[in-house]
Amino acid sequence: MKVLITGSMGHIGSALVKKIKIDVEELILVDNLLTQRFPSLFNLGVSHQFYALDISEEKNSDKLATLVGLVDTVIHLAARTDAAGSASDPLGVEHNNFLSTKNIANACSKLGRPLIHISSTSVYGSQKNLVDENCSISDLKPQSPYAETKLKEEALLKELGSQGLTYCILRFGTIYGFSTGMRFHTAVNKFAWQAAHNEEITVWRTALNQVRPYLYLGDAINCLIKLCQKRNFTNEVVNIVSQNMTVNDILEELRKHYPNLKTKFVDSPIMNQLSYDVCNAKSLKMGVEYKGKIEQGIDEIVGIFKGLKNEF
Ligand SMILES: NC(=O)c1ccc[n+]([C@@H]2O[C@H](COP(=O)([O-])OP(=O)(O)OC[C@H]3O[C@@H](n4cnc5c(N)ncnc54)[C@H](O)[C@@H]3O)[C@@H](O)[C@H]2O)c1
Fold first, then answer.
1. Which residues form the domain of 267?
2. Binding site membership of 101 for ligand 1 (Cβ less than 6 Å)
């Protein structure tokens, strides 16, 4: 397979590149270095081309289209991804994320290449009951500019789909697990960082017992690689979630490594978001496998701080 990955230096991209290399004959990586994770390109052990390109910029559209023409599948990971942080710069996040998706989707559409687009389960917002992909647009309650933009991007792909684009939209739960380009702004990773550095765990005041969907990084990567191999692009939306958990469940797991762990409650601009429990039945029917457990994700992250991981 020949694959282009946008946002390839990020938390997901850096793990994907290391695993996909087994199967790939052409690997094109694109990232604008926004988050400066240069180590993601160290020791890849696979022949690849890397382009430092801001894909939200119109002036880069021709270059982007040339790169898309060289591959048979595009995996689009490029985005500004701090949902809570998006509250302080909603227009900037929308500009970067929406235009990036628009440019890559237009290139895929023009050249007849399928697009794997990563959306987020945060589009569901607060929900009383277990939700699945049939939840109507009017019932979706995105609580951050980041999540609102994800919905807008999904709508754009649906529109382009009616004009010939083939795509798959994967609504990923919050990722946990180790990668060289990992970040620490999402729940599990952030808590593990704080615990490892003897800091109090900062829990959003309303969040302790609320259920949210999470996705083990290894499960996410396997799902992406399988989709590239099977080429089963049906222009659908699919939830990709390893397990739904409360913050308390995560803290209990961390306590096994750090028994004296302390927590403090903090406010967040998006903490009004209540529980939402996301169904992954559709993905299971499609053959997605979930092997990652929270114990494993936490072991991996704790391992890097305790010096147990020698992968570098
Ligand atoms: N990490 C999660 O918990 C999570 C959950 C659900 C969905 N997602 C989605 O998965 C995708 C990848 O997430 P991630 O966790 O790897 O994010 P990340 O922030 O770690 O990586 C994103 C990468 O995109 C690059 N980028 C940003 N804007 C760009 C632009 N205009 N042009 C080129 N590169 C650009 C950044 O430099 C960064 O390396 C994103 O769409 C994100 O919204 C992530």
1. 187-210+244-276+298-305
2. no
